[in-house]
Amino acid sequence: MAAPSSSSSSSPVLSLWKAYHQNTSDRLKFIDSFLIFLMISGIIQFVYCVLVTNFPFNAFLAGFSSTVGQFVLTASLRSQVNPENKGVFKDVSPERAFSDFVLGSIVLHFFVFNFLG
Amino acid sequence: MSTAYPLPTNLSKTTVANTASLLRIVALGLISAAAIASRLFAVINFESIIHEFDPWFNYRATRVLAAKGFYEFWNWFDPTAWYPLGRVVGGTVYPGLMATSGVIYNFLHAFNLPVDIRNICVLLAPGFSALTAWATYMFTKEMKDESAGLLAAAFIGIVPGYISRSVAGSYDNEAIAIFLLMFTFYCWIKALKTGSALFGTLAAVFYFYMVAAWGGYAFITNMIPVHALALMLMGRFSSRLYVAYCSWYAIGTLSSMQVPFVGFQPVRTSEHMGALGVFGLLQIVAFAQLARSHLSSKQFQNLLTVAVIVMGVVGTFGFIALTYMGWIAPWTGRFYSLWDTGYAKKYIPIIASVSEHQPTAWPSFFMDLQFLIFLFPAGVVLCFRELRDEHVFVIIYAVVASYFAGVMVRLMLTLTPVVCVASAVAFSSLMDTYLDPTQPEAEGESRPAEVDASAASNGSTASTASKKEKEKAKKPAAGGALSDIVAATSSSKKSKGVWGLDTRLVVIAHSLLMLGFFVFHCTWVTSSAYSSPSVVLASTNADGSQHIIDDFREAYYWLRQNTAEDAVVMSWWDYGYQIAGMADRPTLVDNNTWNNTHIATVGKAMSSSEEVAYPILRKHDVDYVLVIFGGLLGYSGDDINKFLWMVRIAQGVWPDEIQEPNYFTPQGEYRVDDRASSAMRNSLMYKMSYYRFAELFGGGQAVDRVRQQTMPKTGPTLDYLDEAFTSENWIVRIYQVRKEDDLGRDLKSANAFAQGKKRKRTKPVSKRRAITV
Amino acid sequence: MLSLYTFILLIFGLAVVLDAKSSSGNSVLVILDPARRPDYSIFFDGLQEKGYDLTFRAPKDETPVLIQDDIPSFAHVVFFESDTKHFAKDITPQTLVELLSGKTNLLIALSQKQNLLTSFAPEFSLILPPPGSSLLSYFPERKENNSVVPIEVPSSSNIISAGTAPVWFSGVPFVLGNNPLIFPILNAPAESFAADAEGITPDALADAAEKGGEGLWAGSQLAVAAGFQTLGNARVAWLGGVELFSNEFAKKEISKGVKSGNQQAAADIAAWTFQESLVLRIDSTTHHLVNTSVPKEHYTINDVVEYIAQISRFNPNKGKWEPYSGINDLQLEFTMLDPHIRTALPPVPGSPGKYAVTLRVPDRHGVFKFVINHKRKGWTYLQSSTTVPVVPPRHDGYPRFLSAAWPYYAGAISTSLGFFVFSALYLAGDARETNLRKAKGAKAQ
After folding, report:
1. pLDDT reported for residue C333
2. Which InterPro entries match (chain A) (predicted)?
3. Is C318 exposed, middle or buried (0-12, 13-18, 19+ CB in 10 A)?
4. Residue C412 parent element (H or E)
5. pLDDT digits (tens, 9 = 90+) for C75-102
6. Pick among B207, B238, B251 to test the A interface (most A CBs inside 10 A)
7. Could you say which of C273, C292, C323 is where a domain stops?
8. Cα distances (Å, whole numbers) of residue C380 to B580, C101, C229
9. CB of A4 within 8 A of CB of B312?
């Protein structure tokens, strides 16, 4: 997700940021903040694994996939709740999306804690 | 609108809908009954017994699970398998099958129904085949509609390609794996269609169950990513795809690593890297979509191009580097041999020697699938016509499964579901066209476009049940439900169509006839070819009555009742599970074939002379050696026919001591009569098979009925083994290994002395060594 | 109600039994023409004094049978009738080997004659000299025939008691092959050689001189008495000549005023053969985890296990088995196909007869065996094998929460917490929005 370091594309990044700030609703921004928190947590764990040790590999996988899994579930929730995507999700109302999200997360966490120790 | 035949007009829509669903439920019930019933031939003809080889191990493991509970099974270390290395069963087995049986067992016992664990194991496969039929119905319903679904369910209920691995008594992983396969695919398609994370999670949970059940789960692991990739390449990326795939991948991969046998493979081996790659790609594409909505098109183009290039380059190099450094394991031999078909014969003879791993012959496609095999391409073409997201899946599945089925006989099983689905689609489309009563009008009149009645095909599907009466009863009812047809106004005039009843009747009658033949063929193939427990053989006497050949069980029970409890039995690995299951004795090698060197040691012992083999036998504490010999009866699956594989596998580890050409005559023939080569004649396997065989013929010519050769008058002699047991038809022969001689002599001289021969006079042994210049 | 006479007889009989000297029974069959018994009376009377039950059988007698119904009838067989060519039907080399498998001990004397012993001896890797030869020696100078040879008893022999005077020998020497189960009791003197009565032929001498002494039946490589212990611990003593046991040699003086050691040597050789001396046995073996006392059905890898063996030795004077701690080179192997551990099994000071060692089970699962395989020439072979499976740790036998993994634990927990907080706030936000909308809707109305 890193922006490439080409001089001509610095303006797309800035304009992306400005457009994003203006166009997204508060709720979506709230979801995005959770997403960023998860991403940072995942990157920390990955860096620790690569730099220090990967010894309890299952613990690393459990922790890392917990962040990754939660990230994709939240991103799915975001896309399902986004009013722009209403036409894409005909059968899934936002409430249904949230309950799916909760269910998926519970299953994910169950497996994570089973795999952690 | 004009119709070819009259329709009742006074039925309300709800009545029609209710009747239709009732008919569907009844049809599904009948299909389940047919599926279960056609798998019971072996139980009725013989008895409720576990078949073949692999199921015996699963049965033993399930017994441990039922008797001692789940944690004892999970930690079970079997010291009697692969003696003396032992086998850590908990970590080297797919526990899904045993866990399922254990749950059913405990469930029934909780209701105080004392069902024996053996009966649960024997009847598990038919029960799950009924569930497979239902899962295929749901899957095909997503593809086309309920009528195609019912057809597909009926097909997969009785098609021989699936029955061969799921008869009553075939207690193997595939029994539940195919159901899980179809249901996982159904959940995936449903997740894709609705974009719901619930179905994605459900797909992941059933994927986990599948990983716990069968090693073929790698098929799903690669099918779903290929499908997602194909959709993205076709430009059909949507948020639904993102939701479905990511929820499936994240939860599914994490849960699949819970199974100890799989361990960390999903992040370490090449077979799973495809899924990871598509996952990453999806994230990139999703983010790109998001960014696009916020940017102008040109800026977005720039950003996208640079980002994609960088990502692509970094990703590819990353994968290559990791594979090169060995962090990601390359394709394992089993899967690699699917691409390079000559690989296994050269490098991994064990894989090449299994008869199920041979390429498929053309006739077996027809035998396993009958007329479905030529409806199948038609169905795939129809999928191309519609080409919704789910049809892309069926197309990919069809192509991939066809390739694999051509490479290995065993993989016919993965081809069967998609053949049933596609041919059901094709057949159902045919029925739709010809059962649809609307006729095209003459010019000038408006005609409604018709939507087919699902119940119309109900009649034809119900008739595939084995009762002919039901066929007659359903047909009139089919007409009634037809008024489900909504008089939708059409926008286009239909100028093409089918006029009159006669064409319709001809086509429908012919189709029903084909279905009838299909039922007949399936039942015949099932009863004659796929329903024999290979433990018990049957043949017909001269007067036509059945003659049961029960040599295997006779010999295994002799072992069970007449040998010490810790007596170690050496045999070729084919029979290991059966010996462990029925005779309950430690074995040296068995069908798990995880340790090639151990198998090669057994192969070396079998193909070397007695003097060379004896130290190997003593080192491994072998008490009994078991061989299968079919020469008297004409049973061609015996060890002399498998002998060359033993030699090849041993040669792979000891190329200096065992060479395959030594076992052929100088002209290159494989003979066992007096022209056999000396290595052949002195090998332990030859001696054990033909020991005292010539005596049976009372001085006449001894004939080996399998090899069609006459044996020399004096048979081989054995010094290091004693004959312990030979079964009634000489199929199983058991030999006891003699202990070392008390006087420290080698057994050959000891035997010669015991028979009265005198030793040659020897000079005193020189204690001085010669000086070598 | 027993009469006094029978009672005394019973006690006397019991005393005889209690006085039994051999550890494996005291019935002895002597294959010798009973008429020649007086020639060996010193030896046989000595045996009877010790408590052995002697039965004499001439070679052509049909009874008493050696093996009756597959069971040997006697605990020991003495074969002195070596000059005869024809024997009864049941005395054959094959039945003699069967006797050995049945744990019967044999004391066999060879002779120059060719009979069944000539085909029997090579099975024990004894190489007999050309027929008709006997042991000859021109040294030391003595008034006897040069076929009557005095032989010094080696001081290191553990069969013939120390300090025994040299013995007179007359008979056939032999060479021992390379069977590890055979060992010499008495070697021929260095200056002796084997030849027939005329002496060694000049051709043979020249031949051997060319080959550097090879093939010459001479020197101390020849043995006159050898012991063989089968893997089943039955003992066979091979003697080159029966004269070694005769009264005549026992009474003959070896040098001025010194009696020969024949009587002592004969008694000692018979004592060894009849399982009196140098007889060991393993009473019991056991294994358990250290600090426990009950043997486990299977061990886990890296367990620390103690193995204990109890060994006793037969005391012929008392006729009892006594614990014996004199073996200082006993070894224990922990084997799976090949020994993974091979360690000394030392005696435990303070516990007579107890040998113990503590070892750590290797880091490899499988079916292992505790193997004791102690073979020393002359002593009983100690062989024992105990099978024990070694399993990998249970699924909860591994350390569960490792400190090195704290970032992962923190990450996983923070994700779960974050999820809970997120959904709570989301739902709260949802509720607020619907309230707002309701309020707006109400307002709009």
Report:
1. 93
2. DAD/Ost2
3. exposed
4. helix C406-444
5. 898 988 877 888 888 888 888 888 888 8
6. B251
7. C273
8. 38, 15, 8
9. no
Query: What is the domain-level CATH number for residue C258?
Result: 3.40.50
Please tell me which of the candidates C404, C415, C425 has its beta carbon nearest to residue A70.
C415
Copy the structure tokens of residue A99.
């309950």
Do C29 and C116 fall into the same domain? yes
* pLDDT tens digits for range B704-724: 888 888 888 888 889 899 999
Angstrom distance (rounded) from CA B753 to CA B567: 29
Q: Residues 6 or more apart from B722 whose CB is under 8 A from it? A: B735, B736, B738
Contacts of C426 in chain A (CB under 8 A): 27, 30-31, 98
Q: Can you tell me whether residue B412 is helix, strand or coil? A: helix
pLDDT per position as a tens digit, C415-436: 888 888 888 888 887 777 777 7
Cβ proximity of B473 and B12 under 8 Å: no
CA-CA distances (angstroms) from residue C46 to A10, A104, B742, C53, C356?
117, 96, 31, 12, 41
Q: Whole-angstrom Cα distance, residue C323 to residue B403?
A: 75
What's the rounded mean pLDDT across residues C372-376?
92
Query: Is B280 within the bounds of a domain?
Result: no
- Residues of C with CB below 8 A from A41's CB? 411, 414-415
Quickly state the pLDDT bin for B559 (edges 50, 70, 90).
Answer: very high
Q: Which of C404, C407, C412 is facing A116, going by the closest CB pair?
A: C412
The per-residue pLDDT for B411 is 85
Instruction: Return all residues near B286 (Cβ < 8 A) that are at least 6 apart.
Output: A75, A79, B237, B239, B242
B295 with A19: Cβ contact below 8 A: yes
Token pair belonging to C344: 């000394």
Contact B88 C392 (CB under 8 A): yes
Task: Give the whole-number percent of chain B exceeding pLDDT 90.
Answer: 31
For B465-504, the pLDDT digits (tens) are 434 333 333 333 343 334 334 333 344 455 677 777 888 8
CA dist B191 and B149 (Å) reads: 18
Rounded-to-10 torsion of CA B711, B715, B721, B722: 110
> Which residue segment(s) compose the domain that B631 sits in?
550-754
| Domain that includes residue C63, residue range | 4-273
Q: DSSP letters of C200-218?
A: --HHHHHHHHHTTTTT--B
Residue of A35, A49, A60, A65 for testing the chain B interface, max B β-carbons within 10 Å: A65
Strands (E), B394-451: 438-439
> How far is it, in rounded angstroms, from Cα B670 to Cα B355?
20
What lies within 8 Å, CB to CB, of B754 at 6+ separation is C94, C97
pLDDT at B331: 66
Inside any domain, residue B217:
no
We report the CATH number of the domain holding residue C315 as 2.60.40.1930
Looking at the structure of chain C, the number of domains it has is: 3
B726 SS3 class: strand
The answer to whether position C397 is within a domain reads no
Q: What average pLDDT does the segment B414-425 reach?
A: 92
Which phi and psi angles does B686 have, rounded to 5°?
-60, -45
Give dist(CA A107, CA A103) in Å, integer: 6
What pLDDT, in 10s, does the model give residues C327-339? 889 999 999 988 9
Count Cβ atoms within 10 A of the Cβ of residue B37 and give its class: 0-12 exposed, 13-18 middle, 19 or more buried: middle
Number of Cβ within a 10 Å radius of residue A36:
10
Give the ipTM of the model, two decimals please: 0.86
Residues C105 and C236 occupy one common structural domain: yes
SS3 C180: coil
Determine, yes or no, domain membership for A5: no
Q: Which residues of B touch C367 (CB under 8 A)?
A: 79, 83-86
